């Protein structure tokens, strides 16, 4: 039994498959470019149209290649069946064997013819894929040029934005420094005003204490005067019998009292005048201090 089906058919199928492998190898770079194009499409348009288009094209090409391979496998399967049939009928008569050999040779001729046709189709598919690749490469080059131009424009725009951003940053930093300086000045002024107000409060407290002390002295003086008056009244009662003497004494006491009252009034008025002068001096000092600032 000749080994025509064991050797020739697989070798022919292997030879027929060399070109599809070469196409797939050439398509690797093309797929990488397609993926770059899809990535740009996703970034710019949020769509996958280019990817879907390339998938459809690849599916069509793979479908054609698959059909060719399926046909070759069908013929190979038929040849294997015939080979098995021939081996099982080795002991049959010679005429049957010759008839089966004739059928096998005819089948082998069909396989050769199918492989020839498929090789022609594969050659056409390769040329079509090559032309398609060249077309896609041209489109990608044009797209790359457009993208480079857009990148150049974006770079110029970005540079301009950087200049504007630097100017804005410098302006804002200068404004911040001015504001910080103003904050320091206002804080200093606030602290000075607080210190001035605290000094005024302390002065007022001191004046209040002095006035309280003076009020205490006036109350003590009033008590002493009241005690003196009481003593005078008691003395007057005791000396009622001595009318003249009491009259003179009462007159003297009245004169003394009047003089004392006048003295106390004058003293009080002098103290009030002195306080008024001190307050006026204090107010003038405050105004002068505010004007100096």
TrEMBL record:
**Listed GO cellular component terms?**
cytoplasm; motile cilium
Q: Does the keyword Metal-binding apply?
A: no
Write down the CDD domains for this protein, in alphabetical order. IQCD
User: What biological processes does GO assign it?
Assistant: cilium organization
Predominant cellular place of this UniProt entry's protein: cytoplasm
Question: Any coiled-coil ranges, and where?
Answer: 187-238
Localization terms from the record: Cytoplasm, Cytoskeleton, Flagellum axoneme
Give yes or no: UniProt keyword Cell membrane: no
Q: Which UniProt keywords apply?
A: Cell projection, Cilium, Coiled coil, Cytoplasm, Cytoskeleton, Flagellum
Protein name, as recorded = Dynein regulatory complex protein 9
Q: Which organism is it from?
A: Harpegnathos saltator
